[in-house]
């Protein structure tokens, strides 16, 4: 009797599963799992901090596509980490039943810290009988960029509606709306976090990618407009601060630019970006004078693709810096405003960090901190002497474009200066860096790669300029990095 009952259960389960699979979406999974062992010395360029560090970090990104048909799918991307082993998600006891026990006690092994983070979750579909595509939900959005791996203005995960459509064979339009911040924390603890009206930050953008690669040219102009309510506190964010920032004003934000790739002069490939941004608000802290910031960024790279064993690249970047007016009471900044923390734009793989670094992932990008410099560099990319082994070497010179008078602000005191003028990231016209990187990749399997990344930064900071910020203990040092990375993609 038991055998017949078991057989019946198996039959019913098979019928249910068969019926479900007939109407269920096709599921595809992809992943990017990384474990990185990093040793750094002097990464804050201060001998007195004794910041020799060794840590092993881990990050697991997994993407699921739920495909109904060729015109409709849902995308869900999760992330665990980045965290160091022994900390947070990867501490002892993480993933067990939560408990309020204090750390170090026996029951602390039930800490329960194995959180899974939503990285993306959106619906991707085409409008019937048209060529219009739309993505609606929490997703990755980036403005056009040709150099640096991503946009230096906006490149982040955000709740958004993004619509695209071809106009001609070579021209398309892409536009959207994104909500960057909403301080109305409905659903949280009662009576807390409710910002009321004017507590959101919105961004609208439009791009017109023009692909004439049959003629060797790709051009993508774009424009973006944002508005922040006076309760959103946007001026307190790194990418909008100046010497007299205040978080109690509404802000209007404007960006425009163009990304260009040219392959007319084969075997040379020319890539360039021109970005401009402006943030305008009344600066209540400065007698209600008009405040904000405005600035620009230009970058350019030239690749030579005529060699089989490597691709040499020379690149240049210039971003406007503080010219000293903000230190004279106008309250305006001359650095380009940055929305959020752009994740990928970088030159080299150490000072600006790169998208492969778990360190930069935990920091959320450093573009907003470092603007106000020019750089000239040489990269030898994808050097191949042996099968499955490749190298990339970078040599870069960075020089500041920020006037040293900016550091004389009375507000810029203490070991961690406010308004994005942090020692080691903010470069004045009297500060410079040399960076040398050697990164090696061993493709063990098609899906598994091992990386060895070596980095060195030689510093030259002006002590007279930084003494008011760092104090008498200012003692600059060079920086070193050794990273061993295992990356599994599937």
- List the uncertain runs: 4-22, 360-364, 413-418
Average residue pLDDT: 82
Q: What number of domains?
A: 1
CATH class: Mainly Beta
Distance between the termini: 46 Å
The percent range for strand residues is over 45%
How many beta strands in the DSSP annotation? 20
Largest sheet: 18 strands, antiparallel, barrel
Radius of gyration: 25 Å
Identify the overall geometry: globular
- The chain-level structural class is mainly beta
CATH level-two architecture: Beta Barrel
- CATH topology heading: Porin
> Helical percent range?
under 10%
What does this entry look like structurally?
The chain is mainly beta and 490 residues long. It has one domain (27-489): Beta Barrel (Porin). It is built from four helices and 20 strands. It has helices at 2-23, 358-363, 367-370, 463-470, and strands spanning 26-41, 53-69, 72-84, 117-126, 133-142, 155-166, 172-182, 200-207, 210-212, 217-228, 251-262, 268-283, 289-304, 311-319, 332-333, 373-386, 389-400, 432-443, 448-460, 479-489. The chain has an 18-stranded antiparallel barrel. The longest helix has 22 residues, at 2-23. The radius of gyration is 25 Å and the shape is globular. It starts with a helix and ends with a strand. The relative contact order is 0.12.
């Amino acid at each position: 009797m038991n055998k017949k009952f078991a057989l019946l259960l198996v039959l019913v389960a098979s019928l249910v599963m068969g019926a479900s699979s007939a109407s269920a979406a096709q599921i595809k999974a992809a992943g990017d799992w990384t474990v990185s062992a990093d040793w750094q010395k002097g990464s804050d360029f201060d001998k007195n901090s004794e910041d020799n560090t060794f840590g092993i970090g881990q990050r697991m990104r997994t993407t699921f596509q739920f495909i109904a048909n060729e015109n409709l799918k849902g995308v869900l991307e999760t992330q665990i980490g980045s965290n160091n082993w022994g900390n947070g998600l990867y501490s002892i006891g993480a993933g067990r039943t939560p408990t309020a026990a204090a750390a170090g006690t026996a029951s602390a092994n039930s800490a329960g810290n194995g959180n899974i983070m939503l990285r993306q979750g959106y619906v991707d579909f085409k409008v019937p009988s048209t060529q219009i595509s739309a993505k609606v939900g929490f997703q990755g959005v980036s403005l056009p960029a040709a150099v640096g791996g991503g946009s230096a203005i906006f490149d982040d995960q955000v709740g958004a509606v993004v619509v695209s459509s071809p106009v001609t064979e070579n021209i398309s339009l892409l536009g959207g709306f994104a909500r960057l911040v909403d301080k109305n924390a409905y659903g949280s603890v009662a009576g807390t976090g409710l910002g009321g009206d004017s507590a959101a930050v919105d961004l609208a953008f439009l791009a017109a990618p023009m692909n004439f690669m049959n003629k060797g040219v790709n051009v993508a102009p774009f424009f973006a407009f944002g508005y922040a309510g006076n309760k959103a506190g946007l001026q307190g964010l790194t990418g909008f601060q100046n010497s007299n920032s205040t978080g109690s004003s509404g802000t209007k934000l404007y960006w425009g630019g163009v990304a260009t790739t040219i392959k007319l002069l084969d075997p040379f490939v020319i890539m360039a970006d021109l970005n401009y941004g402006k943030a305008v608000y009344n600066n209540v802290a400065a007698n209600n004078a008009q405040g904000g910031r405005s600035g620009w960024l230009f970058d350019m790279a030239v690749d030579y693709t005529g060699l089989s064993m490597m691709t040499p690249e020379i690149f240049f970047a210039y971003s406007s810096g503080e010219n000293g007016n903000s230190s004279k009471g106008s309250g305006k900044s001359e650095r380009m405003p940055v929305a959020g923390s752009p994740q990928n734009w970088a030159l080299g793989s150490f000072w600006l960090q790169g998208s492969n670094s778990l360190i930069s992932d935990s920091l959320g990008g450093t573009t907003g901190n470092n603007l106000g410099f020019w750089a000239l560099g040489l990269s030898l990319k994808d050097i191949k002497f042996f099968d499955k082994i490749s190298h990339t070497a970078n040599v870069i010179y960075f020089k500041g474009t920020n006037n040293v008078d900016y550091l004389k602000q009375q507000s810029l005191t203490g070991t961690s200066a406010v308004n994005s003028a942090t020692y080691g990231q903010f470069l004045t016209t009297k500060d410079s860096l040399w960076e040398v990187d050697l990164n090696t990749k061993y493709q063990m399997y098609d899906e598994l790669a091992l990386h060895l990344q070596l980095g060195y930064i030689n510093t030259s900071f002006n002590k007279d300029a930084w003494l008011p910020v760092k104090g008498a203990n200012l003692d600059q040092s060079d920086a070193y990095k050794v990273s061993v990375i295992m990356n599994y993609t599937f």
